[in-house]
Amino acid sequence: MILAKPVVENQYWILKKDNRKIGQLEVNENGNCIIKIHDNVVSYKTVKMAREAVNIEFEPPEQFTPAPPNMVYNHEVEGAVYNPLWDVKRRLPLFTRDEKSKSWFAAGWYRVQQHRKWKIIHHPKLITLERYAYQGPFQTREQANDKPVS
């Protein structure tokens, strides 16, 4: 049996056998189904006819589930979230509070050292983390409390 993995829904599939790519199946603008396996090209009037002739099983398309609107890279955020991104250099989940805002916030809980004292802050501004020593991000306030100061 050949497994058809969808690439473009109802238009293009990759054909696999024993977990190796062996060809492709595509539906052209006329609705005809074209199967290319190795160097062989065969055309069928419908996808159903191609499925029966070549013994193809179609894998269901993967369902995309968007992240909840108040989550930024697995860190819960209070209020609106816009422009979520992962800062690779600093390893921080960042977001803005408005579509056109220039103020960036870090999602999660952080321990920030300000004036020789460590404070626990939820969603600090990025500029705060750039100016002071910090530890985090943490998922909860309790995790931030448990982290020993080094």
Describe this structure in words.
With 150 residues, this protein is mostly beta strands. The chain folds into two domains: 2-58, no CATH class; 71-146, no CATH class. 13% of the residues lie in helices and 46% in strands. It is built from three helices and 14 strands. The protein has helices at 47-54, 126-131, 141-146, and strands at 2-8, 12-17, 20-27, 33-37, 40-44, 56-58, 71-72, 75-76, 82-87, 92-96, 105-106, 109-114, 117-122, 133-138. The strands form four sheets. A six-stranded mixed sheet has the order 5-4-3-2-1-6, with helices on one face. Strands 9-10-11 form a three-stranded antiparallel sheet. The chain has a three-stranded antiparallel sheet with strand order 13-12-14. The longest helix is centred in the middle third of the chain and has 8 residues, at 47-54. The radius of gyration is 25 Å and the shape is elongated.
Labels describing this entry:
six-stranded mixed beta sheet; 13% helix; three-stranded antiparallel beta sheet; 3 helices; 150 residues
SSE blueprint and pairings:
Blueprint: E1 2-8, E2 12-17, E3 20-27, E4 33-37, E5 40-44, H1 47-54, E6 56-58, E7 71-72, E8 75-76, E9 82-87, E10 92-96, E11 105-106, E12 109-114, E13 117-122, H2 126-131, E14 133-138, H3 141-146
Name the helix and strand elements from N-terminus to C-terminus, one letter apiece: EEEEEHEEEEEEEEHEH
Shape: elongated
Q: Structural class, judged by helices and strands?
A: mainly beta
Count of folded domains: 2
Poorly predicted spans:
none
What kind of sheet is the major sheet? 6 strands, mixed
Task: Write out the strand line-up for the largest beta sheet, numbering strands in chain order.
Answer: 5-4-3-2-1-6
Taking the alpha carbons of the first and last residues, their distance comes to: 59 Å
Helix content: 10-25%
Q: Tally of extended strands?
A: 14
What share of residues are in beta strands?
over 45%
Mean pLDDT: 88
Specify Rg, calculated over alpha carbons.
25 Å
Q: How many individual helices? A: 3
